[in-house]
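Lab meeting, item 3. Inverse folding demo.
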């Protein structure tokens, strides 16, 4: 089967799950071995920031505008989602600027994890059902667009 057998919501949710695993691993290391794992936590934090930056960008460029057009009553939810993206970007910038892993980065990463958990829950529980109901035929082609853009952005970042 082609890769875009996955629909747009499933593709975005796969990203959510991958980032969730990184947050869990970060928190585990921060608790279990705060001194020895500083280098690993630093790397995980940078991966989280990169993944979320690309994820937010493909949502903002492709998924949110398509949903906004197809489902006018999603506008308020989308406005709120975009505000949450901006808050996440501010935290991401602080994490990227905070240098090596330690208590300060741990606190920022934990705060980002909480914000993202809340945001993802809204996408899953409110936005994705609206997308599935309001633009069912578009979700396959949208997944293909999202994947192409994601790969281009990740290649540019590497
Ligand atoms: Fe998302
Ligand atoms: Fe989002």
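The presenter then showed the designed sequence:
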């Amino acid at each position: 089967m082609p890769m875009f057998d996955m629909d747009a919501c499933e593709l975005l949710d796969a990203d959510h799950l991958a980032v969730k695993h990184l947050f869990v691993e970060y928190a585990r290391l921060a608790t279990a071995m705060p001194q020895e794992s500083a280098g690993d936590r630093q790397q995980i934090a940078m991966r989280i920031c990169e993944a979320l930056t690309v994820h937010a960008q493909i949502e903002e460029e492709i998924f949110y505008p398509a949903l906004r057009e197809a489902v006018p009553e999603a506008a308020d939810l989308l406005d709120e989602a975009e505000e949450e993206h901006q808050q996440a970007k501010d935290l991401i910038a602080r994490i990227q600027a905070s240098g090596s892993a330690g208590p300060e980065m741990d606190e920022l990463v934990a705060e980002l994890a909480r914000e993202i958990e809340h945001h993802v829950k809204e996408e899953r529980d409110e936005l994705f059902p609206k997308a599935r109901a309001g633009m069912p035929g578009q979700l396959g082609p949208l997944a293909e667009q999202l994947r192409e853009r994601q790969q281009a952005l990740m290649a540019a970042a590497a």
